[in-house]
Amino acid sequence: MATVLEPTTTDTDTADVTPAEPLLVRRPRSSTGFWSWFTTIDHKRIGVLYGITSFAFFLIGGFEALLIRLQLAQPNGRILSADAYNQVFTMHGTTMIFLVVMPLSAAFFNFIMPIQIGARDVAFPRLNAFSYWTFLLGALFINSSFIFGGAPNGGWFGYAPNTSITFSPGHNIDYWVFGLLFLGISSTVGAVNFITTILNLRAPGMTLFRMPAFTWMTLVSAFLLLFALPVITVALFLLMFDRLFGANFFNVAAGGNPLLWQHLFWLFGHPEVYILILPAMGIVSEILPVFARKPLFGYPVVIVSGIAIGFMGWGVWVHHMFATGLGPVAISAFSVSTMLIAVPTGVKIFNWIATMWGGSIRFRTAMLFAIGFVAMFTIGGLSGVTHAVSPHDRQQTDTYYVVAHFHYVLFGGALFGIMGGIYYWYPKVFGRMLDEKLGKLHFWTWLIGFNLTFGPMHFVGLAGMPRRIYTYSDGMGWNVYNLIETIGAFVIAFSVLIFLANVIKTHRGPLGAPADPWDARTLEWSIQSPVPPYNFAEVPTVHSLDDWWHRKYTEDDRGRLVKLPDQPEPEPLVDPASVHMPSPSFFPLVASLGLPVIGYGMIYRAWFVAIIGAIITLSGLYAWAMEPGTEPDDGHHGDHHAAPAPAQPETPALVGASAEGEAPEGGDGDG
Q1: Active-site residue numbers?
Q2: Which of 28, 154, 249, 348 reaches 20 to 30 Å from 638, CA-CA?
Q3: Is there a domain that residue 12 lies in?
């Protein structure tokens, strides 16, 4: 955002504004209150929006999971019909991947990454808002299918020809196609924003190998998004043309090839796995050193391993297709590549263990979730390596063993890491400390429920239970396993209720979290909690990795840690009241609003509706591009040379440039 904190306008205040100040600086745009959230372009508030929205969808996806587990708790379940089960199953997978884990990671990207690198904002604040609103409207668009005739029912993987108009004649799959296209737009523009921010807006002295591990994983994930999303976009366009216009890309009878869908989907899908897990790896790489009171062991190796995972993730997609008959050469090549990608992942695990080894460990809730991540992700990684052995994979394909594996990676990995990040950065975001007793109860019930739910799936899968079935007969030997899994799912649900109770309890109390409650290492902990709109009154100069830690500690002649005496905060050279931040704008929301209108028009062949949606989007983009700037005309739009604002000591007006060294608003890169 840069949230614009404008003084309350009165006749006296208006008279005090200098004539040289442009009228637009005084335009009455709300910076607080409910409506301000619709126009905000502050990266921190957008991060909060991402987090709250994706957690709401986590509750929805979790409810869908409970329905699945109730259906399978006993043989011949009658909770859901076959068609309803397919819809719930499809929406559960789609929700958890595209509406929960990805946007939860984006919440951290938005809020934490800019302040970790000493920036005042992201490179393109309005584009950031457009990314969020497009995500929200795309998510609502997919879920609106429950109201308009039925949700997507072809599995979250959308295999052709099952998703063709012949086998799925309703509009279920159409909602899935257009919804994912809108979500892809959101993630793509977000990735461009994060890459540009990291490469261009780092604080002076912060070289690439002085960046925090989380910022590095943000950068790698953003590049993966930038290159992976066009692949699934092509696949979705082909499927859309098959369904809406009678094309035959996946129609065997007309010369099409269903395997084309699998190649395109998994060429996106396997980098997507690392898009989901790398942010959690970055979060854990921040938490472990803080609570072990040791530097991250082998920091350069951890970073290079993350980069290697990003590169190697493009060469393993065919292990999802070993049962399709591709031939021994292809299978052998991808078996080897699947084994090799375990190497940089294993290196990271050993680095995390070495970071904890010999440390002065504090078992706070964030640390417990980080340790849980290392343990559960290791189990998921080991079960994943078994898929590299083709004969073994042929036995596991389409069984619950595969379901167990990817839940240990994406739930045991990504969600454990994200939960650790929530507890770790919560005081920085909201200025309040979550209750540790409730937090630890949340962790242990979460851990127990997770293992009860997904641990037995390894055994029931090896016992032959297929996945994607909505019921099974008695006497198969699967009854006890499925009952335990269902009990575990409800234990997870109970743990989530504990977390919600913790949040409610915390927010009933006053603000009061210190700036650095954990005695942390990175720059975000050098500023007050919650973070002010401008982030840094003066952009810091970085001299080393973990620069904030080295400002607090040094070593004596024996290499022992010595705390430096607390220094009084120097008066900033820049008055925070003179820091120009970009003003709020509702045009990103307008530009996003047209997208679902286009989708509804295309699905129901109401072409005039689609045209109206296109006009809305193009009008929003045009107005966004033409939106006037809010900079004073004195040419002082930089951070260090801004002219003092009118004297309003209680409520300074913060308008103008979006980040260090940027052009004034209106030329902040968005329009």
Answers
A1: 92, 121, 156, 186-187, 270, 272, 274, 285, 319-320, 345, 348, 467
A2: 28
A3: no
CA of residue 7 relative to chain centroid, distance? 34
Residue found by looking up tokens 């020809």 in the block: 161
Give me 387's structure tokens: 């898929």
Task: Quote the Cα angle for 579-585-588, to 5°.
Answer: 130
Residue that is written with structure tokens 């951070």 in the block: 639
Provide the 8-state DSSP code for 545: T
CB-based burial label for 558 (10 Å; 0-12, 13-18, 19+):
exposed
Task: With respect to residue 7, please indicate whether it lies within any of the assigned structural domains.
Answer: no
Tell whether pTM > 0.85. yes
Residue 316 main-chain phi, psi, to 5 deg: -130, 5
- For the stretch 219-277, pLDDT in tens is 999 999 999 999 999 999 999 999 999 999 999 989 999 999 999 999 999 999 999 99
Q: Give the span between the Cα atoms of 274 and 101, in whole angstroms.
A: 11
Helix/strand/coil percent split, the chain, to 5: 65, 0, 35
Cα–Cα–Cα angle for 174, 319, 173, nearest 5°? 5
pLDDT band at 556; cut points 50, 70, 90: confident
Q: Are residues 454 and 578 both part of a single domain?
A: no
Domain assignment present for 22? no
Which pair of tokens denotes residue 448?
A: 């127990």
Question: Cα(312)–Cα(299) distance, rounded to whole angstroms?
Answer: 20
Q: Give dist(CA 668, CA 629) in Å, integer.
A: 9
- What does the alpha-carbon distance between residue 461 and residue 633 come to, in Å, rounded to a whole number? 68
Q: Quick check: 524 and 116 in contact, CB under 8 A? A: yes
**DSSP reduced 3-state for 11:** helix
**Are 105 and 219 found together in one domain?**
yes
Q: 630 Cβ partners below 8 Å, 6+ apart?
A: 22, 24, 25, 27, 582, 583, 655, 656, 664, 665, 666
First to last CA, the chain: 16
Q: How many CB atoms lie within 10 A of CB 612?
A: 15
Dihedral, CA of residue 287, residue 289, residue 292 and residue 297, to nearest 10: 140
**Domain limits at 580?**
573-585+631-671
Check which CATH number belongs to the domain holding 228 and give it: 1.20.210.10
Do residues 635 and 491 share a domain?
no
Looking at the structure, tell me whether residues 611 and 637 fall in a common domain.
no
DSSP label of 62: H
For residues 203 and 136, state if they share a domain: yes
Prior bond of 19 cis (ω within 30°): no
Sign of the C-alpha dihedral computed for residues 80, 83, 84 and 89 taken in this order: positive
